[in-house]
Write a structure and sequence with these properties.
The protein is α+β, with helices and mostly antiparallel strands. The protein is 21% helix and 41% strand.
Length: 242
């Protein structure tokens, strides 16, 4: 009888141990899923950002273009969804076109607060190139979409970086970083940098690379400005794969 009781106790302890380990593993996998998005989350903050797709959107969400990024998280603002989209080359009839060879390209960023099955849009970013007969760029810079809580106040910062230009040569693109914390918008505007040749001494010559902070960024915490400058400098050189 004693042996049977002992065996039962051992089995219960083993089962409990397996259950605890499974729970720990499940928790670890949830965090790992957030890390796999490539997004930045602040240290020691309960900011878990998950990738989603259009099948997981509330029906009230409306957007234009093709989805590039879609994420969801909770912070002091509530239950958040951010979507970034691009149209690529297309013809939009709302623009005037001087030539049959001209086309347009647009990009969008949307932020929603979710309550139940309803989505309230709190802001939208929109930029475009229209009536362009040569090469168009209107696209988000690859791997620059970030969600952070750098000032650790429990409200996430949303970082969007993109380029726009209509050109038929090797010249800089207009480049912008737009960041939102809640409803507060911060903007960094300038140009990327392209190499245009070498001088007589073999030194590389380039154009572009300058930027300016808007007034909100100028008054922003240093941690915001440093993050923006690092993001800019990391992506300042033209990469035709972006």
């Amino acid at each position: 009888m004693l042996k049977k009781t002992y065996a039962k106790n051992i089995a219960l302890v083993s089962l409990l141990t397996i259950t605890i380990l499974a729970c720990k593993q499940e928790k670890k996998d949830t965090i790992k899923t957030s890390e796999n998005t490539g997004l930045t989350t602040a240290k020691n903050q309960p900011l878990i950002v998950n990738k989603i797709d259009s099948t997981q959107f509330p029906k009230s969400i409306k957007y234009e273009g093709f989805i590039k990024n879609a994420v969801r998280w909770k912070d002091n603002s509530g239950d958040n969804i951010v979507i970034t989209t691009e149209t690529g080359y297309h013809i939009n009839k709302k623009f005037k076109h001087e030539s049959d060879d001209s086309s347009d390209a647009e990009l969008f960023g949307y932020h929603f607060i979710i309550s139940g099955n309803e989505a309230k849009q709190t802001w939208r970013i929109y930029d475009y190139i229209s009536d362009c007969p040569v090469d168009i760029v209107a696209s988000f810079v690859k791997n620059t979409f970030k969600i952070t809580d750098l000032d650790k106040n429990g409200t996430a910062e949303i970082w969007l970086m993109y380029k726009t230009v209509c050109h038929g040569d090797v010249s800089p693109c207009d480049m912008k970083i737009i960041m939102y914390e809640g409803n507060q918008k911060y903007a960094m505007r300038g140009e990327n940098k392209v190499q245009v040749g070498v001088d007589d001494n073999g030194k590389k010559q380039s154009l572009g690379g300058e930027y300016k902070f808007d007034k909100n960024f100028k008054k922003a915490p240093k941690v915001f400005k440093k993050f923006a400058e690092d993001l800019w400098n990391k992506n300042i050189i033209e990469n035709w794969d972006n």
